[in-house]
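Hello Y.,

Per our agreement to keep a running log of every chain we model this quarter, I'm adding this entry. I've kept the format consistent with earlier entries: sequence first, then predicted structure.
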Amino acid sequence: MRVAWLCVSLLYLVLSTDGASKYVSVSLNSKWKSTPMLLEASEFLASEGNDNFWGFVTRITDLNPDLLAEETDEAMYHLIQKFSAKFLTPMLQNFLKMFLSLRAYSPTVEMFQHMADDAGPPDGCDAFVFVHGEKTCDADKIKGLVKSAANKDGPVLFKFDHVYPGGRDAQVTAILYGQLGTAAFKTLHGKLVELTAAGDVIYVYRHYLKVRSEELTSLSGYGVELAIKSTEYKAKDDTKVEDGSKSTGGDSGADEEEDAGVDVDGFVFSKLRERHPELKEDLKKLKQHLTETSSELAAMKVWQLQDLSLQAAQLVISAEQENALETLTDVSQNFPSMAKLLLKTSVNSDMKREIEKNQQYFEQYHGMEAGDSALYVNGIPMDMEIYDVFMLLDIMKSEAKIMEGLFSLGFQGDDLYTLLHVDAKGDKQEFALDIRHSAVQFINDLETDKKYSNWPDKVQDILRPTYPGMLRHVAKNFFNLVFIVDPQEKDSRELLKMAESFYVHSVPVRIGVVFLVSGDKDVSGLDDPAVALANAFDYIRQEHDAPKALTFITDVYETANGGEITVAMVTKEFKEQFADEEIEKVFGKDSEYDYVKRSSSDFISKCGLTEFPAVLVNGKPMKKADLTQDSFEEGVITEIMQATPEFQQNVYQGRLHEGHNILEWVMEKDHVLPRLNSRVLNGPSKTLDLCENIESGLTEDYDTFEMLTSKDMCASLADSLAYLHRNDDSKVYALSLWLVVDLQTSEGRSLAYAALKRLKHSNDMRLAFIFNPEAPSTGKVDINKAAHVAVNTLSNTLAKSYVTKLVKEENFDDLQSGKKTLQDLEVNGMDMAAYLKAYEGQSSEFLQVHRVFAERTLEIPGSKRGFVANGQVFGPLRVDEEFITEDVDLLEMYVKQLSANRLRTEITKMKYTGKKGSDLVMKVGGLLASIEKSHTRKKVKYGGDQHSVVKIPGNNDMPAFRIEAIVDPASIAAQKMAPILMVLKDLYNLDIRVYMNSKDKLSEMPLKRYYRYVLDPELKFKADGKLAGGPKAKFVDLPNKSILTLGMEPAENWLVEAIRAQYDLDNILLDEVRGGVEAEFQLEYLLLEGHCYDSNSGQPPRGLQFVLGTNSSDVKQDTIVMANLGYFQMKANPGAWTLKLRQGRSSELYDISSHEYTETPAGFKDVIVAMKDFKSRTIRVKVAKKPGKDKEKLLDDSKDEEGASGIWDTISSSFSGGEKSTEDKDQTLNIFSVASGHLYERLLRIMMMSVMKNTKSKVKFWFLKNYLSPTFKEFIPHYAKEYGFEYELVQYKWPRWLNQQKEKQRIMWGFKILFLDVLFPLDVKKFIFVDADQIVRTDLQELNDLDLGGAPYGYTPFCSDRKEMDGFRFWKSGYWAGHLAGRAYHISALYVVDLKRFREIAAGDRLRGQYQGLSQDPNSLSNLDQDLPNNMIHQVAIKSLPQEWLWCATWCSEESKKYAKTIDLCNNPLTKEPKLNAAMRIVPEWKNYDYEIKVFWDSIYGTNTRSQIEYEPPELDSVKKEAWRDRIEL
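Predicted structure for the entry above:
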C-alpha cells in the first residue's frame, strides 16, 4: 500500500503528461536484398575448409527440398546448428552464431549473385549450369554441353570459388549457379557430382537466387552517437514536422523491456510493476516524470569535474563482478546524464594510488598516457582508431583454432598462453648461399675500383646518418648482388639490364653474375647462343674488363629488341666490337674462354637452387615477386635497408672492423650454407592438423581408415608411427620428419638414404616412414614392408642400421634378383628369426593405409616423394628433383628456427619427455605453422591489480580468450569497447581483465556524447518463427531540452547515408518531438581503396583515372589518383569487379603493369577485385607509360577527357536535354556547396534560388552528399525540374591515412578545401564555392570569368570597416600578423577555383600535406577551411577578390552594403544573433525567396509549412502563383 500511496501523492506532478518516455532509434540496412541464412552459413563453413563446405552441402542436399522450403527462419537456424556441428568445434559454432547475427557473409552471397547476373541466367530457370559459354537448366543436356566444350575457352575461376573435390584433371569446367536447398539445385548438383566422379568435369558452385527477398539485409556492428550540440549560435530550423503519423510513438512493451533492473531516482520500476500490476499506468507516468526531470543536464562547476573519470572508475570497480562490464557500458555510454550520479561517488584512495602506479608502467612499457586506451586479445593489440567487431572476430576466430588445438593436446591456463606466444613466423633468420665461388664473376669492387675512390672508405662510415630511404655510399663491399641468369632468357635480360643500370648509376653494391648455361663439353658457342654470350663475356672480362663484358651483353639485347637471340647475332656484334679476334678461337669447342661456362655449371649443380633466374643479396635469395622490372629496385633497397642495422651494430660493437674482409665475414655467419634448396625455402604446400584426439588402432584396418576425415586420418597416423632417432629415447626431439617414399623406386631409396645419413649426426631429429607405392611389389622382396617391419619391431639402433642397408642401391638390386636375402643384411645383435617371422606375417594393409593418406591428405600421388616436417607438408617432389643429405640438414635448420627450438624449450619446462614431448613439439609446431598471419603479442605490464582492475575469470574447463583492456571509463574508447566485450562474453569463454586508466584533474566534461554500439550475439526471431528485424541503436532517458546531433560510426569502409528521418538529425530537441525520433540509414557502398605508382619513376601518376565495372555491364565507378601516396578510392557493392584505366588520356598513356591484393587469377589479363565482405580493402596498382609516351603529361589541358562526366557514381539530374558538347560543358556555371541540418538546408535552397534569379548561364549545383538529409535529397529533383538547373551529389570518404577530424562541422570544413582535386571530374575546369547561408545578388558568371592571375583560387578578404569587431580580428596580431606579412586574411564563404591550375601545381596534395602536419596540434586550424589556405598563401597563391564579392554585416559597414554582390549571413561573435533573425533583418529579398520555396514545397507534398513563417507573407511571383494554383490553395 505504501507504493500506492506514494504514486497518488506524486501523480499530481504528471497528470498532464501523456505517453512513454521519448527515445531516439537508429537502424541500418544494406542496399541489397536480404540473403538466405542457409547460404550465409555455407560460406562460413567454406571459410573453415573446402571439405567442410561440401560436407555441409551434401547433408543439406540429402533433405527433402519441399519440406525445407516450408521451414520457418527459426527452424532453419536450428537446422544449420545441427548440421554444422558435424564439421565445427563448439567454439567455432559460437562464431557461426555471431557471424550469422552480423550477416557477415551476406556480401559474399551477394557477390556470387552479382556474378550470376553477369553470366546471364536463362529465362525460366531456377538454377542453371554454365559450361564454357553455354547455359542450361536441363540436367539431361549437361553431358552434351561437356562433350562439345573441350575446344572452347573455359571460365575464369577464383580462389574463393567452391570447387567440388575430385575431377582435377578434367578439361572442362562446369559452374552451377543455384540456391542450396532447392529442388533445382539438388537435380543439377547430383548430375555434376556424377560427372566429376567420372573425371569429366571440374564442378564449381556459385550461389544464385531466382527469387529475392523483399526485405533488405539488416546490419549491425556499427556505432551511433548523440553529441550534445553547442547552442552558442542558434542553428535550428523552427519549422515544425507536420505529419505526426510517420512517427511510431512510444512502444510501451519496449519501454518495459528497456528499464528491466534500471534504477530511476531510487525506484526500480520493473520490480514495482511485478508487485503492483494494478498500478501499471500510474507507475508509467511517475517514471516518465522522474526521467524527464532527472535527465536534464545541468552546468557543472570546474571543481566538480576534476575527479569525474576516477569516480566513474570507482563505480565500475565497486560493481559486482558479473555486472562490472554492464556498469562500464552504462557509465560510458550515458556519461553526460551519469555525471550527476558520479558526483556522489567517493574515490577510494587505494584505487587512486594503484591507478597512478599502473600508469607509470603503462607509460614505460606501452607508451601510454593517462586517459589512453588499449585492447589486447591473447596479447594481440587492436588498433584503437579503426578496429571494429569484424576485425576483432577475425582475429578471435583464427586464435580459436589454435587454442582448441592446444587445449585438446592437454595444455591449459598459463601453459596454453605460453605456447600461443611462440611465434612460428616472426623472427626467423633467412638462409643465405655461400657465394665464394669462382663462378661468381664480379663486375665491380667498391674497395679497389677508381670509380669509387672519392667515397668514404672506412667501415665506420656505415654508421653515418642519412635521409630515410637513402643508401650510404661507402667504398666497402657491404652488399653483394649476385645475378644467376640464363643470358638469352627474356626475364634474365631485364635483370642484366638492371645490373648494368646499377653499375652505371653507382649504386653502392658489388655486382656479380653467374651464367646458367649448358655445361656439356660438346656444346660450344657456335651451337648455343647462351654459351656464345658466356664465351664473349669471358673473353672481354679477361682481355678488357668486366663492366665492358656486361655492356656487350646488353648491346646484344638492344640488337635483339626483345626477339630471339641467335649465335649469328652474338658473333656479329662481337666482330663489330673486336674485329681482330677469330670467332673460332673465342666461340669454338676448343675455346680458351670457357671458364665462365665450366665454373657456372659446377656452381649450379652444387648450390641446390632450382628456380631461375635468381638474385642473391649477400647470398640471400630475393623474393620471386621482386624480380620484375617494376619491383626490382624497390626490392633491392628493401633488402639492403633490412641488412644495414646488423652491419651497424657489429661495427659499433667492434665485431666488424678494418681488419676484416667483409665478404668473408658475412659468409662465415651461421645462416650461410654451402647449399640451399628452393623446395625448403619456399615453405610448405600445406599444414596438417594433428591435434584431434581419436581412438588408437584405426590404422590397422584399411576399410575403417578410409572412411575417416583428413583430420582424423592425421591424428590416427601420427599416433601410430614408429620413429628412428640417434640414441636417447627420453629426449625431446625438435623435428619429427615423415618421409613419404616408395622404397621400391631408386628416387625413394635415395631420399631415405639421405635422411638416414643425416640422422646419424643429428641430436634434434627423429624419422618415420609413410610408404607410398603406386602398385604392389613384384620383386622377391618388398623393401617397403621390410623397412616397416624393421622400424616397428627392432630396437632403434638395429632398425637404423638395417633400414640403411635395405635402401642402399647395390643391396636392392641383389635382393630383387635373388643374389641376396633379407638374412644377408643381418645387423649384429638382431634376432633374425623373429624379424623374418614378423616380415612373413605382415599384411600389406598398412601400405594401403599409408597410400590413401598420402594421396588424399598429403596430396602426393602414388610412388611420388615428399616429406612432412612437424606437420608441414613439402611435395610432391619432381622425378628429377634431387634432395640430398645437405638438404635434409637445411630442412632441419629451417624447422628448428621457425618454432621447434622454442617449443622444445617450453615443452621441456612443462616436464614432458621422450615420445610424448616429441609428439607435442611436432603437433604444436604444425598447429602454429597453420597460422596464416603472424601477430606481435604483448603482455600487459602493471604495478598492481587489487583495487583498480576488473577481473572476470573464464571457465577453466575449456579454452578461454585472454582479453586485456586498458581504458579510461570516461572516454570514447570505453563507449565502444565495453558493449563489444559484453556481447562477446555472452557467446565466448573470456578471461577478462580491465585496467582503469582514469585521467584526473579534468577541467572540462570528458564525454559530451551519448553512444550505442549495435551488436547482438545471435539472431532473434518472432513468435511465428520469422526472423526479427535487426538490432537498432536505442537511446532512452535523454535530456529533452538539450540539442543533440546524431552521427554514425560505421566500419571504416562503409559509406552510409540517411534514407528516412522525419526530424532534423543535426538538431534533435526531444522537447519538440512527439513520441520519439526514428532514423533509417542505408549502407550505400563498400569502399575500395588503393595506392597507385608509376613503375618507372616510382611516383604516383597524379590525375590518372580508374574505372570499376563488369564485362557485361556499363555500370561504372570512377576515381582520380592523388599524388599523396598515390591514393585513390572507389565505391562498389558486393561483386567481382574489373578495374581498368579510364578510356581517354589515362588509357592512351598508361598500361597497368602489376597489382597486388586483388583476386585476379594467375595469367589473367584483367584486374579483378572481389568485394565480398564488410572488411576494409586496399589494393596496390603499378602502371607504366606506353612505348613512345614517356614525354607526354597526363594532365595535358589541351586534350579534354572524353566522357569524363560523373565521378564517385555521382547522382545527377539534367533537364536541359540533348547531348553535351565540350563548349556546352565549358559554359556551365558550376556551384559547389555543403550543408547539414534542416536550417542550413533551408538556407541552401534559398541560396540556390538567389543564384537562379540572378544568373543567365546554365547552372549546375554540386553538393556533398555525405551529410544531406533524406528530405533534401527527396526534394532536390523537384526543385531542379521547376527551376531548370542541373545538380550532382558527390561523395568522398575521408582517407584513413589523413588525420581524422571528430566533429561533424570540422569534417565538413575539411571537405570544403582538402579534396577539391579528386572530388570533381576532370572536365570540370572551374567552380565557385558558395556558402549555404549566402544570398547572391549578381550574375556569378562574372566571378567565374574573372582572371585569377595564375593563382589556383580566389578568395575575398575580410572587411575591416567595423571597429567594434577589432577584438575578434585575430589575424591582426600574433602568429597570423607575422605569417601573412601584410597580406590579407581571406574568408572562405565564397571562393572560385581554377581546377586546371589547381591540379597543375598539385595544390590539393600540398594542402593535404600541410594539413597533416598542422592538424596534429588540436589547437591549430581553429577555422580549418579558412586557416589552411591562408596558412599556405606563400606556397599556394590566393587571388584577392574585390571586396564587393562578399559582404557580411558582422565585419563590413552599412555604407558598403549597396555594392555587395553576395551577402553572407556570418555569425556575429559579439551579439550571437540567431541566423534566421539576421537573414530577415539584413537581406530584404530573403523572405521572398524563403516564402516562394515554402509554397513550392507545399505544392509538392501537400503540407502547410508556409503557415509557419516568422514574417508576414510577401507577395508571390505572379508566374509561379499561376503555375502552382491548381496544386495548392493560394
